Automatic annotation (TrEMBL), chain A:
The keyword Ligase does not apply. One of its GO terms (molecular function) is ATP binding. This is ABC transporter ATP-binding protein. It is found in: Cell inner membrane. InterPro entries: AAA+_ATPase, ABC_Ni/Peptide_Import, ABC_transporter-like_ATP-bd, ABC_transporter-like_CS, Oligopep_ABC_C, P-loop_NTPase. SUPFAM superfamilies: P-loop containing nucleoside triphosphate hydrolases.
Length: 326, 323
């Protein structure tokens, strides 16, 4: 078994609301292997983005990490001082933000922002830093790097800005990249280009990736393994092919069936999961999914199912779906 | 960029033209120059001669063009009160006021900007809250109260600084400067501090609000996620986003001090434009008031022009909004 690059155990995040702690992330555990792309899916509010932010200690107050361990290459990230954490951010873990329209500083040139990020972590000196910055502008597929270097974010299109965001996240050669909904804010045609770029860069640099998205299409295209989050808990973690072919958790199956897919006769099949995901502080006792689950029984309503590992996958369900016998 | 500069300059010129017209109407319609200039026993011929000499028989527009032409040649007319050229009166007083304004601007920047940044970066610290408390006083206390308090403490009680006048003045061409002598600097400190009290408090509050808002923004979070140092994040990445309103406010305040420091100049017996303006109003000295009005317009427009030309240097997005 390979040693994972990133190992997250029992990560718990709470939010303090009117003096009462509410659990936003409940003992989430997963790992990312070297060179692997781990997809993290779930509905809005399932805790995907919180998971990503918690890893590099970038939670927005009043969200607060209250438990669990995070290790990168054996180093405990959850015990680092703020100064040491700063070296991890950008240097060891790159972070790609969702909305390229708001995540670049509007009054500082692209080149300056790239150079600052490179200089902070690699300390190469002026000329080499600039050369790297120009190199990264070219690598993410922007024409005329010399021109782009001097431009401001508002002079670029959304897709071009997201390419710069990707360059900013990768330019200090991190070993892991956390991409938080990297294509959600983009046009569909641009999405495809950005995904292709991320695949290419991933292949070239062997960087590990944690890809947070609500789009199963993106997962199918990019991920090696998938973690499904539901109401702040891990529902299932499986290799991508297995997840789509034989989901174990009823929620995973519901999520897959809720994605529009053409059937053999040309129609579109779409099954929605009844009800809605419980919000913060409204998670029912037992399995969080039990009110919406057709297989729920009395044990689901009283005890939180633990994450059990079975061969290459893991799921938290007392009554998992049977595997289709091939 | 060239378009931007050109459009700003044209706008400025147009506004100045309008101000001059208003000032001209003031001169043309208020008061009776004939009564002021003619002796009581003047003949009808003398009267008609004067009317012709002053051009009072011309149509309004022609007189305005004449007025404008004189302005452009540096002929600002005569004061009713002293019979001196208005240009000479203004030139004598202007250096005192402008030096006072710039020294108070310096104090504002030197004190207000660092304190504002501190409060914006550490909004919940005790020292930050203390600064905010003090700044409330700076906002609410009227200028003359601050001036009197400063005089009471530094002149009367401690005897450190003079309470009136400009100190020793050195003449350089037409400009008389008090900034080249120790007594000049000692004299300017109290009035400049008085004028900057409000500005300092204002800049602190504005910077704090701006920084707290920018600090929440997504691009600052992303800068943190890239591991940039807190110093770089605040002093380069965040500050640059707050500069536009700060520069605008500083410019307007500078204009305000130059034009309307009447009260403070009075408290400190500062021989500047404010006291000239006050004397002119008391004597209904219309030509001086009119030229002063134009002067104030020029000051504001020039400062505004400089500020607007600085915008694109700070934030290139200004140019895009233009096109």
């Amino acid at each position: 078994m390979t040693t994972p690059l990133l190992d997250v155990r029992d990560l718990t995040v709470t939010i303090n609301r009117d003096g009462r702690p509410i659990t936003a992330l409940d003992k989430v555990s997963f790992s990312v292997n070297p060179g692997e792309v781990l997809g993290v899916v779930g509905e809005s509010g399932a805790g995907k983005s919180i998971t990503g932010a918690a890893i590099i200690d970038l939670l927005v107050p009043p969200l607060k990490r209250t438990g669990g361990t995070i290790s990168l290459n054996g180093d405990r990230l959850d015990q680092l001082s703020p100064k040491e954490m700063r070296r991890v951010r950008g240097g060891k873990i790159g972070f790609i933000f969702q909305d390229p329209m708001t995540s670049l500083n509007p009054v500082i040139t692209i080149g300056r922002q790239l150079c600052d990020a490179i200089e902070t972590h690699l300390r190469l000196g002026g000329n080499e830093t600039k050369r790297r910055a120009l190199d990264w502008i070219a690598r993410v597929g922007l024409p005329n790097p010399d021109v782009q270097f001097k431009r401001y974010p508002h002079q670029l299109s959304g897709g071009m800005r997201q390419r710069i965001v990707i360059a900013l996240a990768l330019c200090a050669n991190p070993s892991l990249v956390i991409a938080d909904e990297p294509t959600t804010a983009l046009d569909v045609s641009v999405q495809a280009h950005i995904l292709q770029l991320m695949r290419d860069l991933h292949r070239e640099s062997e960087v590990s990736m944690m890809l947070i998205t609500h789009d199963l299409g993106v997962i199918a295209k990019m991920a090696d393994r998938v973690a499904v989050l539901y109401a702040g808990r891990v529902a299932e973690i499986s290799p991508v092919a297995e997840l789509f072919a034989n989901p174990s958790h009823p929620y995973t199956r519901g999520l897959i069936r809720a994605t529009p897919m053409p059937t053999a006769d040309g129609g579109v099949q779409l099954d929605q999961i009844p009800g809605a995901m419980p919000g913060l502080g409204a998670v029912p006792p037992g399995c969080a999914f039990n009110p919406r689950c057709s297989r729920a029984q009395s044990d689901c309503r009283s005890v939180v199912p633990p994450l059990v590992t079975q061969e290459s996958s893991a799921f938290s369900c007392f009554h998992p779906l049977e595997r289709d016998v091939a | 960029m060239l378009n931007y500069v050109a459009s700003r300059v044209v706008q400025t010129a147009f506004v100045l033209l309008v101000i001059s017209f208003i000032a001209f109407l003031l001169v043309a319609n208020i008061g009776d120059p004939l009564a002021a200039l003619l002796s009581a026993d003047a003949t009808v011929t003398e009267r008609a001669e004067l009317v012709a000499r002053l051009g009072l028989d011309q149509p309004l527009l022609a007189r305005f063009l004449h007025f404008l032409g004189n302005l452009l040649q540096g002929d600002f007319g005569l004061s009713y009160r002293t019979q001196d050229p208005v240009s000479q009166l203004i030139l004598e007083r202007m250096p005192a006021t402008i030096e006072l304004a710039f020294v108070s601007l310096l104090i504002t920047i030197a004190v207000g900007v660092p304190a504002g940044i501190y409060c914006g970066v550490n909004p919940n610290s005790y020292f930050g809250r203390f600064i905010m408390l003090i700044s409330t006083a700076g906002i609410t206390l009227p200028n003359f109260v601050v001036g009197l308090l400063l005089i009471a403490v530094f002149s009367v009680q401690l005897g450190l600084l003079p309470s009136f006048g400009r100190g020793d003045v050195v003449q350089i061409g037409f400009w008389s400067t008090g900034l080249l002598s120790v007594s000049g600097w000692r004299a300017i400190l109290l009035p400049a501090a008085t004028l900057s009290t409000f500005q300092v408090a204002f800049i602190i509050r504005m910077l704090r609000t701006q920084l707290m808002e920018v600090g929440q923004s997504e691009h600052i979070r992303f800068a943190r996620a890239r591991g940039l140092s807190e110093a770089r994040i605040w002093y380069v990445y965040a500050i640059k986003n707050t500069l536009l309103p700060v520069i605008t406010m500083l410019g307007l305040q500078l204009g305000n001090i130059i034009a309307f420091s009447v009260v403070t100049e009075n408290v400190f017996a500062w021989p500047g434009l404010g006291s000239l303006f006050l004397q002119s109003i008391q004597a209904a000295d219309i030509p001086v008031i009119a030229i002063y009005l134009i002067f104030v317009g020029v000051v504001f427009m020039v400062i505004n022009l400089v500020v607007e030309l600085l915008y694109p240097v700070v934030d290139a997005r200004v140019l895009r909004r233009q096109s």
